[in-house]
Design a protein that fits this description.
It is a single chain. The chain is flat, with a radius of gyration of 20 Å. It is an alpha/beta fold. The chain has 10 helices and 7 strands. The longest helix has 18 residues. The chain has 2 domains: 100 residues, Alpha-Beta Complex (2-enoyl-CoA Hydratase, Chain A, domain 1); 50 residues, Lyase 2-enoyl-coa Hydratase, Chain  A, domain 2, CATH 1.10.12. This is Putative enoyl-CoA hydratase. One of its GO terms (molecular function) is enoyl-CoA hydratase activity. One of its GO terms (biological process) is fatty acid beta-oxidation.
Length: 211
């Protein structure tokens, strides 16, 4: 399975005007889980998520990039975590993930001011991992990354890698370390491990089956 996350043409990450906001303040107060359900488990899935961005990438758009495993953006993309300029604050994950990705001071520079920044700065911060030439190249680059993972990497190895990193991020290093030996022992017994070792010795591309 491969794919990339992108917004359709009629969708974007700018804040909705007041008359179109789908949730009232009262509903948010009585149903906070409705806005944070996606944060309860940082990575419930073990399929890589690659995001491609272009144009205006604001507020929730940045938070979607922060939730991805790999992110690509077009060179002309503009970014802004501007909730503080609307009297609120980022409640879709930026206060958790932005400091982890960019470092505390780098994140606060943009989260506390709401200033705009460009793709070069997003790359420096670690918010994106590749700057593409334009919108089409951003999507193509994301799909190429997905294709590489799909065709070159063993599915069970990819799943185990994401699972281990997720445990470390959500439960701490000790919890992840405790799983290293059991998990690698299980992988050593798979057909894909045997194929990977054989392909290395025989100097050929591995043909993984996910078993």
């Amino acid at each position: 399975m491969r794919g990339a996350l992108r917004a359709r043409r009629h969708l974007h990450s700018r804040a909705l005007p007041p008359r179109r906001r789908p949730r009232s303040r009262a509903r948010l107060a009585h149903d906070p889980r409705g806005t944070s359900r996606s944060l309860e488990a940082r990575r419930p899935w073990t399929t890589p998520l690659i995001a491609a961005a272009h144009g205006w990438v604001m507020t929730l758009g940045i938070e979607l990039l922060l939730a991805a495993d790999i992110a690509v953006a077009a060179a002309d993309s503009r970014f802004a975590q501007s909730e503080v300029r609307r009297g609120i604050y980022p409640f879709g994950g930026a206060t958790l993930r932005f400091p982890r990705v960019a470092g505390w001071c780098n994140a606060m520079r943009w989260v506390l001011t709401g200033d705009e920044f460009d793709a070069a700065e997003a790359y420096r911060l670690g918010l994106i991992q590749q700057v593409a030439t334009d919108r089409a190249d951003a999507l193509d680059s994301a799909m190429r990354l997905a294709e590489t993972i799909t065709t070159k990497s063993a599915p069970l190895g990819v799943q185990a890698t994401l699972r281990s990193a997720t445990v470390a991020a959500t439960q701490g290093d000790d919890a992840a370390i405790a799983r290293l030996h059991p998990d690698i022992a299980a992988l050593f017994g798979t057909a894909d491990c045997a194929e990977g070792m054989a392909s290395f010795v025989e100097r050929r591309e591995a043909q993984f089956t996910g078993r």
